[in-house]
């Protein structure tokens, strides 16, 4: 008896592109919704800064463990199922993070939350590679722009709800409703398959994938540095009032979001290699300006330049991973995502260690040197 051939996957089109954008928004919205809840969790569980820092490692551990697993599951069961599962994990974790006071339950909630975020982030980038390749157009920057936009909406929205007098639990329930509605909208057009590449479920990244992953690590390291240390630097070193010290990251986030939302046209005009070279150089100049200038106003301009410079480097690197043939993309995409997250997680600790041994300015200058290395690597990568 002749076997019935398995039908080929439907080629992604406009609806699949829309669902990818929504999924990126969900990822950014979900992770940012946690930020305004941190002080409440700290007070509820009566944590000091050191204990809170250790607890937050549970979030990172959940993400890093989940990312390669998500890539393997998406390859077997499809992006739709894995993205849905990851979103449900986020929605289950948020009420825990908004209510529990037990350290053990907070650890469990943060691990589940991190696993959900890692699952969604890894899988949506895999879908983005497939959808962009099928379109024949440059789309990755726009996809990542929706992640950044989701982050701004999530952080500002939850902060606004809390400011209106809602409890942390009530605010998270609003977040869950929005995420569920977004998932229902995107779900029918999320890819029911993953990568068609054959190969093992897990493998240590090597060759050009490792090189791309290291570049992602540096860019995310810079992002983590601005996120966690720019306010400390502006208040302690530049005398800016603590109430306004968050303006450094705000300037970074705004230019990064704007850069990504307009990035597809920029990449088409300049080409991927120039985007890495020019973006890395711009980020280097911005980090040096923010660190070495004595005026806080100039430092804000520097952080804005870092955001603009970094905005399209990572999307271009994801596109490059989709083109390489060294490793199957269902392994390669989670690998560079994991390395990128490692940069964000390692950033605060590395900078703190360097600052303790010398100064915070020295730590930022070293990051500027690494960003200069990214700019030089753009020529070497030749994407």
Automatic annotation (TrEMBL):
Keywords, ordered alphabetically: Membrane, Transmembrane, Transmembrane helix
Cellular localization per UniProt: Membrane
Main location (coarse class): membrane
Domain Major facilitator superfamily (MFS) profile: 208-383
InterPro entries per the UniProt record, alphabetical: MFS, MFS_dom, MFS_trans_sf, MFS_Transporter
Pfam family, one: MFS_1
UniProt xrefs under SUPFAM superfamilies: MFS general substrate transporter
Matching CDD domains: MFS_MosC_like
GO molecular function, one term: transmembrane transporter activity
Bilayer topology: Multi-pass membrane protein
Tagged with keyword Transmembrane helix: yes
Cellular component terms (Gene Ontology): membrane
Keyword Transmembrane: yes
TM segment ranges: 22-41, 53-75, 82-104, 110-131, 143-165, 171-191, 203-223, 243-263, 275-296, 302-321, 333-354, 360-381
Gene3D superfamilies according to UniProt: MFS general substrate transporter like domains
PANTHER family for the chain: BYPASS OF STOP CODON PROTEIN 6, INNER MEMBRANE PROTEIN YBJJ
Protein name (record): Fucose permease
Organism: Pseudomonas antarctica
Taxonomic classification: Bacteria, Pseudomonadati, Pseudomonadota, Gammaproteobacteria, Pseudomonadales
Gene: ybjJ
């Amino acid at each position: 008896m002749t076997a019935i051939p398995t039908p080929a996957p439907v080629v992604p089109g406009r609806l699949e592109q829309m669902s990818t954008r929504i999924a990126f928004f969900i990822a950014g919205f979900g992770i940012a919704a946690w930020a305004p809840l941190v002080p409440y969790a700290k007070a509820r569980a009566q944590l000091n800064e050191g204990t809170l820092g250790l607890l937050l490692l549970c979030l990172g551990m959940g993400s890093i463990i989940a990312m390669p697993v998500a890539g393997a599951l998406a390859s077997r069961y499809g992006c739709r199922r894995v993205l849905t599962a990851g979103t449900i994990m986020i929605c289950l974790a948020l009420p825990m993070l908004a209510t529990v006071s037990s350290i053990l339950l907070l650890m469990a909630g943060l691990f589940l939350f991190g696993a959900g975020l890692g699952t969604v982030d890894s899988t949506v980038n895999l879908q983005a590679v497939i959808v962009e390749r099928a379109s024949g157009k440059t789309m990755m920057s726009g996809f990542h722009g929706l992640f950044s936009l989701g982050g701004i909406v999530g952080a500002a929205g939850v902060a606004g709800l809390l400011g209106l007098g809602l409890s942390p639990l009530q605010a998270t329930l609003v977040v869950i409703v929005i995420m569920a509605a977004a998932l229902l909208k995107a779900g029918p057009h999320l890819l029911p398959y993953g990568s068609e590449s054959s190969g093992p479920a897990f493998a240590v990244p090597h060759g050009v994938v490792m090189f791309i992953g290291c570049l992602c690590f540096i860019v995310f390291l810079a992002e983590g540095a601005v996120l966690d240390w720019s306010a400390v630097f502006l208040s302690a070193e530049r005398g800016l009032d603590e109430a306004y010290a968050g303006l450094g990251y705000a300037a970074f986030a705004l230019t990064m979001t704007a850069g990504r939302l307009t990035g597809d046209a920029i990449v088409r005009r300049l080409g991927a290699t120039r985007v890495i070279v020019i973006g890395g150089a711009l980020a280097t100049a911005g980090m040096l300006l923010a660190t070495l200038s004595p005026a806080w106003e100039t430092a804000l301009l520097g952080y804005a330049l870092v955001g603009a410079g970094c905005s399209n480097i990572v999307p271009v690197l994801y596109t490059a991973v989709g083109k390489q043939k060294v490793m199957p993309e269902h392994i390669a995409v989670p690998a560079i995502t994991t390395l990128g997250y490692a940069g964000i997680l390692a950033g605060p600790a590395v900078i703190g260690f360097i600052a303790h041994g010398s100064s915070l300015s020295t730590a930022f200058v070293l990051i500027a040197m690494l960003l200069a290395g990214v700019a030089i690597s753009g020529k070497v990568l030749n994407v």
